[in-house]
Amino acid sequence: MLPFQARPSGFLVLGRAGMDLYADPPGSRAEQAGRFAAALGGSAGNIAAGLARHGLPVSLLTCVSSDSVGRFVLNELAAYGVATRLVQVLGGESRTSLAVTETRIQDTQNTLYRNNASDLLLSEEQVRAVPFRDFGALILTGTALAASPSREATFLAMERARAAGTLVVIDLDYRPYSWPGSLEASETYRAAVAASDLVIGNDDEFAVVAGGTHDDGRKLAAGLAGQKKTAVYKMGEKGSVVFDPDETFETGIFPVAAIKPMGAGDAFMASLMAAIATGKSLRQAVLSGSAAAAMVVSRFGCAPAMPTPAELEDFLARNSAPQD
Q: Rounded CA gap, 27 and 120, in Å?
């Protein structure tokens, strides 16, 4: 079992939080929408909201801009119950991420504005002020590694978390447009994987880390168990494989009528970690993550779609467990 220790401040999530603007009503194309519905977004913001929905203490470590979009994000985080004391508000010309997207399953358009992104200005000074011993786990997304100074600050956070006995968890979250090239991404991710206890990613992302094919990525993921790490290797509709020092097992997906493709990975992470924090086995945790992923793609938004424990329990009771 992963070496998770419950601590008073619960989880620390590092990475991007932003505003999502969804074309409304659902099914509309963005260029034809008469209006848009706003929601909290960004991979780290969604994960933090998902953990808060489980009633767990969670803080976000990031930067937002000192403008209406940054204030929207802070207000939304507070409404979900995410602590924002470690969020730095930046003046100047940086901007909080803004996504214009659609609730459509076919040909979904997702336009992300990341010019001079505030979250990528996370600094080492900001990280040094974090009391890592108060947190049971540091959860980060790979986007935070894509540029400086966030890259160096993120590696420092991982180093300080491990020194404090805090579980380090990374969602690879590889987005090619954020990186100068795949070679730099591969080298950076390899260093981040080496500093992590739990690594989660899909087959394409592990292939990037390995600098090769899906087969190379799967071999890399499987090899992490021999390094006393745990890897969750996701394969889309084929489910996932968990490589752990104590066991290897496969889990399928829950078939649902999806209305959008986004949010599944963030939901998986949030409910997986919530299950681990509440004493569930790794198998049970992966099952909870898979169920949450199915629920979120069948609901509006990403953060707003994150399930509560009662909703998750009801879903699991009504749906057959995917077969290993």
A: 32
